[in-house]
Every structure is written in structure tokens, then in C-alpha cells.
Amino acid sequence: SSTVSLAVIPGDGIGPEVTAEAVKVLLAVTDGGPVRLELTEYPLGAEHWLATGETLPDSTLEALKGHDAILFGAVGAAPGDKSIPSGLLEREMLLKLRFSLDHYVNLRPSRLYPGVASPLANPGTVDFIVVREGTEGPYTGNGGVLREGTPHEVATEVSLNTAYGVERVVRDAFRRASERPRKKLTLVHKHNVLVYAGRLWKRTVERVAVEFPEVSHDYLHVDAATIFLVTDPSRFDVIVTDNLFGDIITDLAAAVTGGIGLAASGNINMDGTFPSMFEPVHGSAPDIAGQQKADPTAAILSAALLLRHLGLEKEAARVEQAVEEDLAARTGEPRTTAEVGNAIAAAVS
Ligand code: NAD
Ligand code: IPM
Ligand code: MN
Predict the structure, then answer these.
(1) CA 91 to ligand 2: nearest atom
(2) CB of 319 closer than 8 Å to CB of 71
(3) DSSP code string of 201-225
(4) Protein residues with C-beta less than 5 angstroms from the ion ligand 3
(5) Does the annotation list 218 as a binding residue?
(6) Are 70 and 7 in contact (CB under 8 A)?
(7) Which of 42, 139, 172, 237 is catalytic?
(8) Regarding the domain with residue range 118-257, which homologous superfamily does it belong to in the CATH classification?
């Protein structure tokens, strides 16, 4: 038997609640199998910052690099919370992890599972993936402020797009499209306004497309993409897009496929140089934290993505199957976070 070493970062708010259920399911699905999971928990997040002033110390970052993968919950304070500066943990911890571990593929699948209610009257068959760039765009902290607090303040956030960064994520998206039945890729950008970055993305897609003649591709401006995500989500197969557009459209995609409580993601370093990190798309949900109201399904499906990334396809499929059955059997009667986790863990045992 072999050992897989996982780092677990529960984080803030509902993070610890949903992560506990994902861990339960991971342990249940691997129990008695050939792979033994070894879990190491890292207490990072708001509480840790308040107690120590640390967001993500270098020593912790180095320790995290020694694991095979990372399971992450969520970080972030409530919007009105004055005890911690807005964006501090998001930037100095979560984004620092994604950047330092070179998570250039932010994989966000959207599927409307059978029996799950969509807010759309006629959603059709919805099953697509968003390949969101994870290390560039306006997320790099490449900006600044002049004359802050004065009537003459100037604030900039510059979107960074490199040929190297765009090409590797576009190639990954094409490869994923080539392995799916419909083999269709849609570039989502805004090259009518963001002309320099837009040109780079468009030209890169045209060039990489030549390597994948079996994949068809088209293009949508991001504003129009939000229309079709609501009016005709079944048209999408693989969407490739930049970091910020990808953030926004994946919350929308989650909403049309049954809610943010179901949306999983992986921050993937495809080269295997660094461990990849799996987390629900949602945040720390301060409005429901500590009440066992959060749906752990997104965290559990993220754990399935983690298993697949580590080559544990059978285990990943079992978790997804159990989730699918659990979703189909839901009656609308509320269950606690742990009740949902227990049911899915029992189904994979
Ligand atoms: P959010 O995703 O935390 O919450 C948005 C809404 O969705 C809330 O009403 C919440 O109750 C609901 N929700 C979220 N997850 C749910 C679940 N599993 N089950 C049921 N309902 C769920 O987004 P927000 O309110 O914009 O952000 C709250 C904090 O989280 C902020 O500090 C933000 O920066 C941070 N955040 C962190 C991550 C992350 O760690 N990956 C992602 C997004 C937001
Ligand atoms: C997400 C979140 C993060 C993002 C924030 C918290 C940095 O919204 O994972 O979708 O914008 O990527
Ligand atoms: Mn987001």
C-alpha cells in the first residue's frame, strides 16, 4: 500500500465545517483500499492572524510544498468586520498559495445534476468546465494608488498577461476539450475593450487550435457570455478565460446549476512541480457560519477532484456517484452540514 500526504487548511467561517465533511468522505472512500491518507492540518486564517499576525509564513509555505495535495476550506471575514483588513487573507494567504504553487489551471466544473433544481425554467443539459487562468490577470497586485484619500486619488490594478501564462492555460483547456465528447472550446474575454490582453488571448487560441484539429472553438465577450450562461447554458463545453472573468462567471455558473453550495474547484499545477489545491468555489459565508447550515457538497466534490488529480480515479468516481445519488434523493427537508457529509461518507464506505 502507498501513502498520500494531504495538507488540510480549514480556514474561516464555514471552511472548517465543510472541510470536516470532505475529510470524512476522503477517509471513508480510501478506507481498506490500497492508498492510505496521511492528513496534516494547518491552522491558517482569520483566527490565526488575530492570534499571531501571520497570514502565511514562509516556513508554512515550505512545509505545504512537501505534501501531495492540499485541501482548502475558505478564508475571509464578513464584509463589515473591522477586526481584519479586507482582502488581507485573500491576498496574503489564498492568492499567495495559488501564485507560489503556480496553480495556473483553476478548474471549475459546472454540472446540473439530475434532480437538482435550477433557477432557470428550461436549463437543458448543463455540463461544462471553466478553465480559469490562476496566476495572472488583475490578481497579481500589480497596481497602486496615488494621493489616496484626496479628491485627486488615482487607483490602478493592472492586468498582467504573459504569452507563457496564456499559452499554457489555453493548451490545457484545449487538451481537456479534446478529451470530452463535444470537443468544443469557448474563449471568453473582452477584446473589444481590453485590446492588448484580448489580442494575446485570441491569437494564442488560434495558434494552439492548430494542435487540436478535432476541437472546435468560438469566442464570446464576457458580457455576452453572462447572457448565454443564463439563457442557454447547455451550449458550453469548455470555457477558457482569464482570472477575473473566470471568478465572476463561475459564481454565475454555480447559481444556474443548483447553487454555490455545489460548486467545486481545483487550483492545479499541471507540471507537478508543486502540490495542487482543491477548494469549494464559495467563500467563508459568515452569514451562516457556525450553524451547520452550509452545504458541504462543494467541498466534497472538490475532494473528488483531488482524488482524480492524484490518479485515484476509482475513488473519485465513487465520491461523485455518491454525491449524485445524495442530490437526487434530496427532499428539501433541511439537513445539517454533518448529516449531508455522513450520508455521503456512508455511501462511499
Ligand atoms: P460566499 O461564497 O462566502 O457567500 C455568498 C453567499 O453564498 C452567502 O449567502 C453564503 O451564505 C452562501 N453560501 C456560500 N457557501 C455556501 C454553502 N456551502 N452552503 C450554503 N450557502 C453557501 O461569498 P462572500 O459573502 O462574497 O464572501 C465572504 C468572505 O469569503 C469574504 O471575506 C470573501 O473575500 C471570502 N471568499 C473566500 C473564498 C475562498 O476562500 N476561496 C472565496 C470567495 C470568497
Ligand atoms: C474564489 C474567490 C477568490 C478569487 C478570492 C477570495 C481571492 O472569490 O476562489 O473564487 O477571487 O479567486
Ligand atoms: Mn470567487
Answers:
(1) 7
(2) no
(3) HHHHHHHHHTT-TT-EEEEEEHHHH
(4) 247
(5) no
(6) yes
(7) 139
(8) Isopropylmalate Dehydrogenase (3.40.718.10)
Instruction: Give 247 Cα–ligand 3 centroid separation in angstroms.
Output: 5
Cα–Cα distance between 1 and 34 in angstroms, integer?
5
Tens digits of residue pLDDT in 280-316: 999 999 999 999 999 999 999 999 999 999 999 999 9
Report the C-alpha gap between 91 and 11 in whole angstroms.
14
In this structure, which CATH number among 1.10.1740.10, 3.40.50.300, 3.30.70.790, 3.40.718.10 belongs to the domain 1-106+263-349?
3.40.718.10
Q: Say how many Å lie between the CA of residue 288 and the centre of ligand 3.
A: 17
Q: Which amino acid is at 31?
A: D
Q: Each residue of 127-143: pLDDT tens digit?
A: 999 999 999 999 999 99
pLDDT digits (tens, 9 = 90+) for 160-219: 999 999 999 999 999 999 999 999 999 999 999 999 999 999 999 999 999 999 999 999
Which pTM does this prediction carry?
0.97
